[in-house]
Amino acid sequence: MDKVERVQRLHAILRKCRTPVSLGSICERLECSESTAKRLIRDMRLYLDAPIINQPGTGYSYARNSIFELPGVWFSPEELHALLTIQQLTANLSGGLFDDSIKLIRDKAASLLGSHVPSPEEIRRVRVLGAGARSKTLPMFSIVANAVMHRQRIHIRYHSRQHDEWTEREISPQRLVFYRGNWYLDSWCHKKGDLRSFAVEKIEHARFLDTGCKEIPDAELDEKLTTSFGIFSGKPKATAVLHFSEKAARWVQDEEWFPDVSGNWLDDGRYELRIPYNNPTELVMEICRYGADVEVIEPP
Q: Which of 22, 81, 249, 270 could disulfide-link 59, Cβ–Cβ 3.0 to 4.6 Å?
C-alpha cells in the first residue's frame, strides 16, 4: 500500500468514525507500523491542514464540527486510467439502446469522485491512447457477450488471419478478454477439441444453440491460455532469452512484459529477460521494436 492510498484510507476512517480511533486500530487497518502511522498523521496535519486531534488514552479523530476534504486529485495512476477509459469509451457510444444506461454510468462515476471529479479542461490534458486497436466495428459482440454471461453454446463463422481461411465452428464461450485495445473470446472449440482464442471482430456470424456450454475450470483456462507470452494460447514450449543494450535496459527493466518474466542485470551493463512462450509471433514483433538494442540468445 503506497502513501497516497494510506492517506485516502485514513481520511475515510476518521471521517466516518463517531468516536476516536486508537493508534493500534489505525495500524491494523492501514497495514503499517506505529511509526509509519504517526508519520502519516504528522504529514496530513503539516501539508494538508488536516484537523486531526489526539485524545490521550482514547485515539485520533477529526476535530468536532470540522469540514475537511482532501485537496487536489487523489487518484492512483490505475484509478485515473480507469476513470478516463470509462469516460472516453462511453463518450463514443451514442444513438443506441443503452444511451440511458451509459449516462447513468457517467453520472455514477462523477458521484463516486465527488468534489474531486476532473473538469473538462483537466480531462482534456490527459489522453488514453488505444494503440494496437484494430476495429471499432463488432457486430457480433452482443451475442458473444450474452453467450459468455448466460453460459450458452454458439455456432460461429470465423475468419482466421493466420491461415486466411473461413471456418464454421461450434464453441463454448468461457470468457471475454480485452487485450491491447481488442476483444478476444476464450472458448472451447468443439471442432478442434481444445481451447482457442478468437478475435471478436473476425466473427462474421454467430447464433445461439440449444445446448449449454462445456464448462472449463478457471485453473485450466489460466494454465492453457495465460502461461505463455501474448494472446496466443497454449502451454510454454520454450523460453526466449533476450539481452538488451545498456541504453534499452533503462526502459525494459520497467516494462511489464509478462507476469512470469524473470529479469536481471548482466556484469557488462546489459539486461537479460527470460520469457516463456508458445507461439513466437507476437514475441517476435515485440523484440523487433528494439532493433539493434536487443540480442536473441535463445532460441537459435
A: 22
CA 210 from chain centre, in angstroms, equals 34
Q: Where are the beta strands (DSSP E) in the chain?
A: 52-55, 59-62, 152-160, 165-179, 182-189, 194-199, 203-212, 238-244, 262-265, 271-277, 294-298
pLDDT of residue 176: 86
Q: What distance in Å separates the CA atoms of residue 210 and residue 165, rounded to the nearest whole number?
A: 27
Query: Tens digits of per-residue pLDDT, 158-170?
Result: 998 878 899 999 9
String of b and e for 232-250 (b: at least 16 CB within 10 Å)? bbbeeeebbebbbbeebbe
The C-alpha cell 482464442 sits at: 197
Residues 6 or more apart in contact with residue 170 via CB below 8 angstroms: 153, 154, 155, 189, 190, 191, 209
Sign of CA dihedral 150, 156, 159, 161: positive
Cell numbers standing for residue 170: 461450434
